[in-house]
Structures are given as structure tokens and as C-alpha cells.
Design brief:
By secondary structure, the chain is an alpha/beta fold. Helices cover 27% and strands 15% of the residues. Strand 5 and strand 6 (97-101) form a beta hairpin. The radius of gyration is 21 Å and the shape is globular.
Length: 377
């Protein structure tokens, strides 16, 4: 373990030269490497799991950590697969470490897959939205660890949408894009969210889970953190990430959010749109948007630049009013994304955004009280 502590010292020295630098959980080797000594390790990670341009897996292998398996979330280990695409397992590091996809039918690690593991490290860059499935993967991994008496270490990350907004999920809208009764933007880091999952007994099996969270240093939750690696193929700019809590709701409609263009989640539109601020033609892009809405059709729409900590329903309400075939506007996915089956009908009935928001405020206030208990920064 001498190599581990030498590396830890070098990293600490580098970051202490600039106290203003954010130090993410995965950079705090001195905190978690000793916990891995003489343990068989599994790692939940993807392309965002890097430290000084070196992947976490490679760093741990260099330190002599016994890495037994890699688990990848939606979008795969390389983060290059479009949303919803199933990933087949491959191997890593001279074909000696199996990569296991936690997506599709195998969202939760099986007993067999973690049988030869003592501790699992979780290191993924989330975007702070209920329907971004990395927190669902976290929950399933936590369940598997508790059921099999395994330890889990969450390496904390900043939340680029670190605010509380949107309706709280109702029980009849639970799915992989919303497993718990939380708002669209839940205002917690991934580590804080893990503690809340355990502390609120959302899952009874998590009460006795051996959970460790490696905190960040120099993190200010009131600042907007600019990601150094973008989390998935269609979230490739900070503006797209800021727009995502609102624009993802359009995925439950016929409207394009720019998939198949170079501006996904920065534009919205559809053919024959009376709002002709911009035009675009969605194209098939391998691994990113292979069958985007309105593929190869000329669409008209608008650029979106959200800079407030809100879910802006006005965009959906206004475009719904403009869309001529209103009976085809929504699909069944909308209820799962927004988390409350009442909201679609409220939009259809012509309710304003302010009226709709007032209807979810009571549940939102109750959630904020729960959230306070788990703030670490």
C-alpha cells in the first residue's frame, strides 16, 4: 500500500497549491484508498469517472487495487450510447475485468455478479434531475449491496442543477425514470441523495447498509459548477444541462428537442410550426440519435436558454397551444417524466403555469423539510 499513500500525498500537494479548486470525492485518495485494502472491488463508473484525465479504474489498478468488475449505467461505460439503448457486456484491461451493464433487464446487480466483490465504488456525474437515470442505478446498487452484505462507497460529485423545483413524484408514476417521491430537481449531490435514500427508509432494505460517502472539498452549492466531462451523448454543453429539467418533459410529447442535430436540448420545434425563429432537420446520428423525432424533416422552432432555477412549464403550454393535432401532442411517457398524472390534464384544460405550480407547492415544501437533514455542504 506504500504506492497508494505516495499517490495520495502527491494529489493532496497538487490541490493544496490552489485552495479555490473543487476537489471531488474521487480525488480524495487518502480518504477511500485505505478502505479498499485487501478487498475485492467493483466500480460503478463511466467516461465521467476520470481524475486528471486518467480513468478511475486505471488509477486504482495502478495503485494495486483488486478490481473485480466494472458496472456501467445507461449510455454505457464510454458514455457514447444514446438514451434507452441496451449495452452488451465487454471486457476491460487486457480482457481480465468484465464490464456489466446496469441497464435494460439487468438494472440491478445480481447476487452472482457481486458474489466475488467486497466493496463497490460508485462514481458517476449526475445532472440533478429525477428522470436522469444515474440515481436510479445508485438505488439499485445500494439495494444489491445491502442484500448481499457488501459495502458501498459513493464518491461525491457536484450537482450542476443544485436547486429544488418541480412536482413531487406520485406513487402511480414510479418507473426507472422516477423511483422515489422527489421533485424533478431535488437539490442534492449524489452523496447527499444516497444518505437520504438510506435515512428516510425509502427502501426498508437500506437501513443497515454499510454506506460511506467521500465528501468534496471547496464545494459551494450556491455556485454553478461547469462540468469538465459531459455526462451523456445529448448533454454536451452546460446550456443543455441547464435546459434539461424543463426540456426533457418534451420527450413525453411529439415535439423535437433537437436530438439528431448539433444542439440537443438547446432547441425545440416541429414541422409546420408557426414560430419560425430557427429551422433544423434532425438526422440519424449513430450512437447519439439513431431515430430522432421528425427524422429528415424540416422543423421550425426556437433556441432555449434557461438561466433560472425553475421548471418552466410555459414552454410546453405555449407549444401545446400552437400544435394543431392536440390529441397527438402527449404520449404515455409524459406522466412518468413529470411525475403527476394530473399535470397533463391541467395543461389540456388551459391552466396557466403559475396555477399548475401552486398545485404542487404543498408536496414540494414537505420535501424541502426532508432534504434539509441531508445537506453536507
Amino acid at each position: 500500500m506504500k504506492k497508494i499513500f505516495l499517490l495520495s500525498f502527491a494529489v493532496l500537494l497538487f490541490y493544496n497549491l490552489s485552495a479555490q479548486n473543487l476537489i471531488k470525492g474521487n480525488q480524495r485518495f487518502e480518504e477511500y484508498l485505505p478502505l479498499l485494502e485487501n478487498n475485492r472491488v467493483g466500480i460503478v463508473c463511466n467516461h465521467t469517472s476520470i481524475i486528471n484525465r486518467i480513468h478511475l479504474v486505471d488509477t486504482l489498478l495502478t495503485c494495486g487495487v483488486n478490481v473485480q468488475a466494472i458496472f456501467s449505467p445507461e449510455h454505457g461505460f464510454k458514455g457514447s450510447e444514446e438514451a434507452g439503448r441496451l449495452i452488451n457486456g465487454v471486457n476491460y484491461y487486457k480482457d481480465t475485468i468484465k464490464i456489466i451493464s446496469l441497464y435494460g433487464k439487468n438494472k440491478k446487480p445480481t447476487d452472482e455478479q457481486i458474489e466475488d466483490i467486497d466493496v463497490i465504488i460508485f462514481d458517476l456525474q449526475d445532472v440533478g434531475c429525477r428522470f436522469y437515470t444515474y440515481i436510479s442505478t445508485l438505488e439499485y446498487v445500494m439495494q444489491a449491496c445491502k442484500e448481499n452484505n457488501k459495502k458501498i462507497i459513493v464518491l461525491d460529485r457536484p450537482n450542476p442543477n443544485n436547486f429544488v423545483a418541480g412536482p413531487v413524484l406520485k406513487d402511480d408514476c414510479k418507473s426507472f425514470v422516477g423511483m422515489q417521491n422527489i421533485p424533478i430537481c431535488y437539490g442534492l449531490t449524489i452523496g447527499e441523495y444516497a444518505f437520504m435514500l438510506q435515512g428516510e427508509c425509502f427502501e426498508d432494505t437500506l437501513q443497515q447498509l454499510d454506506l460511506t460517502v467521500i465528501k468534496m472539498l471547496n464545494y459551494n452549492r450556491d455556485s454553478i459548477y461547469v462540468l469538465d466531462v459531459f455526462p451523456s451523448p445529448n448533454l454536451q454543453t452546460m446550456q443543455a444541462i441547464r435546459n434539461y429539467p424543463t426540456l426533457c418533459l418534451f420527450e413525453g410529447t411529439v415535439i423535437s428537442v433537437g436530438r439528431g442535430t448539433n444542439m440537443p436540448f438547446e432547441i425545440v420545434g416541429f414541422p409546420n410550426n408557426p414560430n419560425k425563429t430557427i429551422s433544423f432537420i434532425p438526422k440519424a446520428i449513430k450512437g447519439v440519435a439513431e431515430n430522432p423525432p421528425f427524422k429528415d424533416k424540416l422543423c421550425y422552432g426556437q433556441m432555449i436558454n434557461i438561466d433560472t432555477n425553475e421548471i418552466l412549464l410555459d414552454y410546453i403550454i405555449d407549444i401545446y397551444k400552437e400544435y394543431s393535432q392536440k390529441e397527438k401532442f402527449f404520449n404515455s411517457f409524459f406522466d412518468l417524466l413529470v411525475g403527476d398524472k394530473v399535470i397533463k390534464q391541467q395543461i389540456i384544460d388551459g391552466r396557466s403555469a403559475d396555477e399548475i405550480k401552486k398545485s404542487w407547492q404543498k408536496d414540494l415544501d414537505a420535501y424541502k423539510e426532508i432534504r434539509k437533514k441531508y445537506l453536507m455542504y
